[in-house]
Here is the input.
Amino acid sequence: MSKYTRFEDLPVWQAAATLYEKTQTLLETPGLRLTYGFRNQLDRAALSVSNNIAEGFERASTRELLSFLSIARGSAGEVRSMMALAARRPALAMVAGRLADIRAGAEACSRQIAAWAASVENSPVQGSRHLTAAGRQDRRAAEAARWFRNHFLTNMSPDHPLYNTREARLARGENPDGPVAEGEQGEGENGK
Here is the structure.
């Protein structure tokens, strides 16, 4: 899993920033016939995508991150809806390509946000997202211990008393409930 330390480095934030830039370029088009309310809402919705990604990233808990990602995705949907509505207006035919480009950008942001949120939801880290130095050290030690135990179990000789234990058989990718070779015992030294 990639580790980002700044929201500005996130590909999804960069896509959202590009979405906002394209939206601003559209809104700055001379003679573009959009109501003040539409312009204002589009500006706020497009800006909301990148801002909520940033705010969620800076929050400490998984729950808060997911909440802000949900808002960002909703804002991307709002931009998409506004572009679909604008594309229906004959007076905006001169910018139809730009409307479609912004709509596609909003859809891409929405997909990336959804994938990130799904990844976070399936992550084993569900509380605080930022480990302390001691927490990182504990995690590394636990990972090293798991690796060593797995290495030990997969490389022990067949005459080792733990060779046919359920854990060792699982580590070697064998059926732990399958038959044990004749003359060999099952769990532990006494077959239990």
Notes: The mean pLDDT is 87. The longest helix spans residues 62-87.
